[in-house]
Amino acid sequence: MQRKAKLGEALAGTYPGGITIAVAKDPTGKHNPITLGLFMQTSGDPPMFAISVAPERYSFGAIRSSGQFVLSYPSLGMARDALFHGTHSGRDMDKLAECNTRIEPAAKIDSVLLSDAIANLECELEGELESGDHVIFVGRVVASHVNVDPGAKWLYAIGPGYKLGGAEARPIG
């Protein structure tokens, strides 16, 4: 049986949920990460993934101008980085340097991989679609990487109300 509820209440029951961090190089040459809860695999052949980013986010312009992004699946040890990258703007700082996020060069695109992530997917932008207050970017995977530590585990968002380092997760709707 179901009852009518506000969107935020309905979505609260969907946690924990996976998150990713997209990294794109801005026009000044700075690599900017953004933590995302809106992503999915859209094709197996060719391998393609979609991410959803609000146009007012600094990363939006970086993705659009560079035409590429790295999709990183953060490990449990990256909880502080993931929260920081999702609650601060790259307009104001170099978020990777601020967090001392470990990076290494990407193999096929002009970006960086997050060294401690469980996986990194290098994507070339294939298209975009406006979707309400966000834009869906679709990227074709041109290279993929996995953490050498087989025990690395994927970081999940645990839901609204969780606090880490003074920042708090916020509900949708």
Produce the secondary structure layout:
Blueprint: H1 7-12, E1 17-18, E2 20-25, E3 31-36, E4 39-44, E5 47-53, H2 58-66, E6 68-73, H3 79-87, H4 95-99, E7 103-105, E8 112-114, E9 119-131, E10 134-146, E11 156-157, E12 163-164, E13 167-168
Antiparallel strand pairs: 1-11, 2-3, 2-6, 4-5, 5-10, 6-9, 7-8, 9-10, 12-13
Summarize the structure.
This protein is α+β, with helices and mostly antiparallel strands. The protein is 17% helix and 41% strand.
Proportion in β-strands: 35-45%
Distance between the termini: 23 Å
Proportion in helices: 10-25%
SSE string, helices as H and strands as E: HEEEEEHEHHEEEEEEE
Number of domains: 1
Overall radius of gyration:
16 Å
Number of strands: 13
Shape: globular
Q: What is the number of helices?
A: 4
Q: How many strands, which pairing sense, and closed or not: the largest β-sheet?
A: 7 strands, antiparallel
Oligomeric state of this protein: single chain
Q: Which sequence of strands runs across the widest sheet?
A: 3-2-6-9-10-5-4
Question: What's the CATH first level?
Answer: Mainly Beta
CATH third-tier fold name:
Pnp Oxidase, Chain A
Q: Any idea what the CATH architecture is? A: Roll
